[in-house]
């Protein structure tokens, strides 16, 4: 079997086009476009790229984008003061604090300071709690994008064996909650899991989000499985050139899977598209 390669770039673009149409309707009805404010603290090069990509995509969808780029030495009270100002600004519908934050800042405290109604990352404890209780919530963009890809590949996933590798708050835990909400039988594997290979071999859906290049061996994959790779690991190839690879050995996994996402061009573009969808959702909820 050779897997169908899931084109996250094309799927992300389609979602962005749908969001842009919703933004035009919103603007016609309310006399203003939804606004997204993105906050970046420090000069992490990958984060700077992602923030730029978010700004471009937000503007392309017809929304108002504000990027707040703060020096690495910004204190936690200074950052909290900016978030308080954005919370109070009626033209701001969505607030996103790019992660990771510098080590001197308490990430949990910062994420909890964002107004849950504007929390387009879905990281505020209220949105986390709502998701795990099966209530309507702003849902983290990457797992939401993964779920769209999985449902489009498989249709109904009720009762299917799903394995989420990684237990981060950004991807692993919300991904498990979303799969559970669709009635999949969900296992979360992590660094202490014994015999990862056996778990992978049982799974009809595998979502890998650990950040370890090639951790999941292709030969472990159950034939016909839907394989979603969230890993974005920068490695240097034999030619000395840097490239991006996932957590899953792509070619051997592709030979066994039914569907597989590439890296790059799989899950990544869905993250940005999901952010735009969340911003429109937050804007609509705020005016209703
Ligand atoms: N506040 C947040 N911080 C972070 C999040 C997040 O969802 N919210 N996720 C990641 C980074 N991220 C978005 O911020 C992100 C990662 C990757 C991509 C993407 O499109 N990747 C491309 C490749 C781009 C490249 O060449 O580097 C792909 O996979 O095709 C978008 C967004 C951590 N921080």
From TrEMBL:
GO CC annotation: cytosol
CDD domains for the chain: NAD_bind_m-THF_DH_Cyclohyd
Example GO biological process: methionine biosynthetic process
Catalytic activity annotation: (6R)-5,10-methylene-5,6,7,8-tetrahydrofolate + NADP(+) = (6R)-5,10-methenyltetrahydrofolate + NADPH; (6R)-5,10-methenyltetrahydrofolate + H2O = (6R)-10-formyltetrahydrofolate + H(+)
Superkingdom of the source species: Bacteria
InterPro entries with a match to the protein in the record: Aminoacid_DH-like_N_sf, NAD(P)-bd_dom_sf, THF_DH/CycHdrlase, THF_DH/CycHdrlase_cat_dom, THF_DH/CycHdrlase_CS, THF_DH/CycHdrlase_NAD-bd_dom
The Tetrahydrofolate dehydrogenase/cyclohydrolase NAD(P)-binding domain, residue ranges: 140-285
Any one GO molecular-function label of the UniProt entry: methenyltetrahydrofolate cyclohydrolase activity
Pathway(s) annotated for this protein in UniProt: One-carbon metabolism; tetrahydrofolate interconversion
Keyword NADP: yes
Keyword terms of this UniProt record: Amino-acid biosynthesis, Histidine biosynthesis, Hydrolase, Methionine biosynthesis, Multifunctional enzyme, NADP, One-carbon metabolism, Oxidoreductase, Purine biosynthesis
Annotated ranges, domain Tetrahydrofolate dehydrogenase/cyclohydrolase catalytic: 6-121
Residue ranges of coiled coil: none
Extent of the signal sequence: none
EC numbers on record: 1.5.1.5, 3.5.4.9
Function: Catalyzes the oxidation of 5,10-methylenetetrahydrofolate to 5,10-methenyltetrahydrofolate and then the hydrolysis of 5,10-methenyltetrahydrofolate to 10-formyltetrahydrofolate.
HAMAP family: THF_DHG_CYH
Subunit structure: Homodimer.
UniProt family annotation: Belongs to the tetrahydrofolate dehydrogenase/cyclohydrolase family.
Protein name in the entry: Bifunctional protein FolD
Organism: Sandarakinorhabdus glacialis
Gene: folD
